[in-house]
Specification:
This protein is an all-alpha fold and 85 residues long. It is 67% helix and 0% strand. It has one domain: AhpD-like, CATH 1.20.1290.10.
Length: 85
């Protein structure tokens, strides 16, 4: 008996979610390390993968307890990039 094939869209959705997760995680790292130059690119990647504005902000602020207030320094750049068309 053969195994039914999975829909190609499930793999595509899984891939998009992985890209979104990677971009959001990288934003958290960049914010903690104060590497503002990479923020616009990774915000755009996260947005293209379906991340909401709130998810981007949350990803940046996740490092607040460990890294301190330095993570907030990249918020203006991230929000400006996300809101730009």
């Amino acid at each position: 008996m053969h195994k039914p094939r999975q829909c190609w869209c499930k793999d595509w959705i899984r891939r998009v979610n992985w890209i979104k997760t990677q971009a959001l995680a990288y934003l958290a790292v960049l914010a903690a390390l104060q590497r503002e130059s990479g923020i616009p690119f990774h915000v755009e990647q996260a947005k293209k993968a379906g991340a909401s504005r709130e998810e981007v902000i949350s990803a940046i602020l996740i490092g607040l307890p460990a890294a301190g207030h330095v993570v907030t320094q990249v918020l203006p750049t991230a929000i400006e990039t996300y809101d730009a068309e």
